[in-house]
């Protein structure tokens, strides 16, 4: 009997030695071909061949640098050798693997099982599609028992889990690129099935930009009013998408309208600053053309005081701008991060198996992308309003 659990341990020695421990007896008598075959089945050979010493690599110090998936694949290879003509038990043995690697491992194990009986305990129902018998437990009791075909004929718990867990990675997310593949049998069809509430899933060729972790926004009417045929088609399309993006961000920020109003007033005053300064400087210069020194002094003092008042108003406006738009942007970033985090924590493990949605990438979305969106609802709004005021005042 061979057993591979979720948290498997490796021992000091070479990779060959660790895998050969699955066979009871003298490990020195285990041939390299037997170990290589087991590692090929567990897909461990893909990273072993990249190591300098291959199967002779001493993992005494390397153990800490191996990923969880690499350790699990070595443990599966070891358990496979221990289950020769017996039973192979996999207790969440592939929990650290991505979905594609997990499917390769499970398919290899099933194809090479020969006289082995494979007992797999897993919460990833998508990895159980090739098993001859599937038992579903609910609250400690057997709820369903049968083959894959039997459990997917009607609306069973297993079928619901299969559909839900496969579509959970797509629900509340934007367009996720999928490679176009020919229509397969019922099993693969179920794996691709998604609910009507999920977001759009576009083919890889149609995805020109990286997906954003939020629901996709459809334009009312389904048509792009700025889109036209001709050389400017792409330019108009980009401008339209940018407009829709800004519109959506600003609509999300409108709940903070009291602070936005403070920011608008501050930006308006700041926008008037440059034209008024130019006007005052012109008056100061014109004052030097007066006839008497008293008139020149009085004119200079008056417009100097006006310049001081403009400076004080600019200081107040800068504070209003920073407080109003800054607080609104912070609140917007907080709500956005909260929504993203809530969506992420409720995803199934298959979601994190996608290279696009690794913990590192999701952390980057929470930290960096939300900050950039906060800038759109903060500093960018202030800059646009100041520029508009300057242009209107000059014209």
What is the topology?
Layout: E1 2-5, H1 15-20, H2 32-41, H3 45-48, H4 68-82, E2 87-91, H5 99-111, E3 117-121, E4 134-138, E5 141-146, H6 148-151, H7 157-167, H8 186-192, H9 233-253, H10 257-287, H11 293-345, H12 349-353, H13 359-376, H14 379-394
Parallel strand pairs: 1-2, 2-3
Antiparallel strand pairs: 4-5
GO cellular component, one term: membrane
Membrane topology: Multi-pass membrane protein
Domain ABC transmembrane type-1: 261-395
Your description of this structure?
By secondary structure, the chain is mainly α. Among the domains are: 121 residues, Rossmann fold (3-Layer(aba) Sandwich); 143 residues, ABC transporter type 1, transmembrane domain (ABC transporter transmembrane region fold, Up-down Bundle), CATH 1.20.1560. The protein contains 14 helices and five strands. It has a three-stranded parallel beta sheet with strand order 1-2-3. A two-stranded antiparallel ribbon has the order 4-5. The N and C termini lie far apart (86 Å). About 16% of the residues have low confidence.
